[in-house]
Amino acid sequence: RGPIKQHMLTFIDMKVDYIDDFKETLTKVAEVNRGKLLHIIVPSTEERVSEYFGFKDKDLPKTVIADMGSDSGAGMKKYMFDEVEHTYENLIAFENDFLAGSLKPSLKSADSKPGDMTGAVKVITGEKFEKEVIKGGKDVLLEFYAPWCGHCKSLAPKWDELGEKFKDIKTIMIAKMDATANEIDHPDINVKGFPTIFFIPNEGEPSQYEGAREVDDFVKYLQTHATAPFELEGGLKGGPGFKDEL
């Protein structure tokens, strides 16, 4: 058996006057699910860790379960403890709900803007991923990027050009998501580096795009993978009929 991959992290200012009672409560909780969860106290001085989880000093104490043992290979999932009081009973109930699989992961999302879906390249936020991508009724070629990523910056003008080519094709969406500001929970989508590109066919299973990254390469890919026929300006065709002609 490998190391425990489910960690309950409690962020707290170690100088608060109730720290001893607090640590005693956490110790009792840890005894109950020993071997199932690793229990860790994170001092508020660990600013980078706190920032990663989105916690500010004024909000502490805060508790989160970080699950790094996903069977799908997807990235770490976070489950936030929403109760105000860190009582033994509340924390045990939280852990038991997690272990029973009844909690949903906490996902961050950038604010959606009115113009997100009006450009040639659609901007997808975490909160709109399910609606626009999974249930949008289109084939979607989606780029997960990071604003600081050099390869992403190099791809940007090509991605914009691709979007322009397909902007009038009603069955295909060219889209992008800032993966540093948005999180999704999908068993078949695992983003480990940038840029990562996934093709999500209408009512089909996502698959990662592994080909070259020139505009013509993306077009050829969509010609052979699109679930509905299309014709671009200039007469270039693709879709199921195109597959039959190969």
Question: Care to describe what's here?
Answer:
This protein has about 250 residues and is of the alpha/beta class. The chain contains seven helices and eleven strands. The strands form three sheets. It has a five-stranded mixed beta sheet with strand order 5-7-6-8-9, covered by helices on one side. A four-stranded mixed beta sheet has the order 2-1-3-4, covered by helices on one side. The longest helix has 17 residues, at about 150-165. The protein is elongated. The model has no long low-confidence stretch (mean pLDDT about 90).
Helices and strands, in order, run as EHEHEEHEHEHEEEHEEH
Q: What distance lies between the first and last C-alpha atoms, to the nearest angstrom?
A: 49 Å
**Mean pLDDT over the residues:** 92
- Biggest sheet details: 5 strands, mixed
Instruction: Tell me roughly what share of residues is in helical segments.
Output: 25-40%
Poorly predicted parts: none
Give me the count of strands: 11
Give the helix tally: 7
Structural class: alpha/beta
Shape: elongated
Tell me the Rg in angstroms. Answer: 22 Å
Strand content: 15-25%
Reading side by side through the largest sheet, how are the strands ordered?
5-7-6-8-9
